[in-house]
Predict the structure.
Amino acid sequence: MIFEFSPNADFNFLHSFAGRIGTQVNGNIVRLTPVLGEGFLRRIRLSADFSLIIHHYTLREELILKRNSTEIDYDKINFLFHINDKPLALATAPSITPYSDNNFAIRITSTNIGSEIAFPANSEIYFTVLSVTRSGLINLLNIKNPNATIETILRSKSGFLFYENMNDDMQKALKTLTLANVDQELGQLQVWLKVQELLYLLFERLLTRDNIKHKPVHHADSKMILQVKRIIIADLSVPPSLPNLAITAAMSISRLTNLFRQVFGHSIYEYYQNARMEKAAHLLAVQGYSVAETGYQLGFSNLSHFSRLFERYHGTKPKRYSQNMPAV
């Protein structure tokens, strides 16, 4: 099922989505019909500056939410927190690095950037869209020395797009927020605390980004840069080719590399290596591959080099990493 929408001042997402699936909004909640799956969408307005729509469901068929680009509202920022895999439990043993093609992802965007998000069938979805006013966010964060990324988010008068992956603390916060009972005493306060925790963990990471000059991002740019990302992670055994990626994006190599670093916080090759090491941890800890199988799967002909690189990223050698992980 595809749900396409173009938000404006009069648009109500919950009512529109409820009409599309043949049901109604009941107390700011839409419950999925049995034909589509199980679960709900809930709207929570925390204050004049902070509101969110929480999606928590398991689908019988793929759902695509397609948000069309609109005229930019400089006062609004959208944060999309997205897990479409089995999240970590609230209390876990040492964490397993999640690898899942940005299925554990945070997207920060101005309102002029559209999106198309596919939620697969038979997978538990945790997806929250947090809409924030700039003034509310500035007052909450109270950052005295913002870098270029945070300055763009808080004050830029042009379009922007940034991505971050979620760590396990972010996943736990999102899960707690999603499952909070807002109708019980202190339920809304619990949601507000988890929203603040997510923003704290996110901006703590954004503060570490390189202080590079940022250029405006348009809807067409966002589509191309995400296509480049998909190509990079499609086969992690092969290093990315900058000339080929530039052709795909219809950009010069310099523009592509600068824009990619701006959006993802890493160079193309750094992003590739990060994804490679995340996939290695996933193969070792979740799929039960041996060290040799993992290294060869990811294109390493020299297993000693693979072991050194893995240790640099994860702080331990791959064999010890796989031995120390809890059963899942």
User: Anything to note?
Assistant: Residues 219-324 form a domain with the Arc Repressor Mutant, subunit A fold (CATH 1.10.10.60). The CA atoms of residues 49 and 133 lie 5 Å apart. The first strand starts at residue 2 and ends at 5. DSSP finds twelve helices and ten strands in the chain.
